[in-house]
Amino acid sequence: MPSFASPPNPQAYYEQVWSIVRQIPVGKVAAYGQIAKMIPPPNGVEIETYAAFAPRWVGGAMAACPDDVPWQRVVNSQGKISERAGAERQRQLLEDEGIIFDAKDRIDLKKYGWNGKTGEDEPQQPKLF
Asked: Could you give the domains of the chain?
């Protein structure tokens, strides 16, 4: 399996990520991998390779996002904030939105996880894997 530190066209991929993240409602969160599954693999990237690297690519997109992207609503698959600079700010923003963390600093993804729908029953994009 080839290694991809970033997507073949990072800016195009990042734009797709940011478009999805902008749709996460206040008081909800999504995981990096969940967002990755909402984006088709770029041309030339096999699905297995994409599945392995895409969550990291989403992380790269979030690290480079513009100010209008609610970056705080993206967490890891355990419902935790990834350790890095800005983690305390992220927690505060999420708590301000009404999200509660448990004793192990996790968010209950069943309660606060975004289902990927933009309207009442309108799916964002089909899941590919």
From this structure: 10-112 (1.10.10.10)
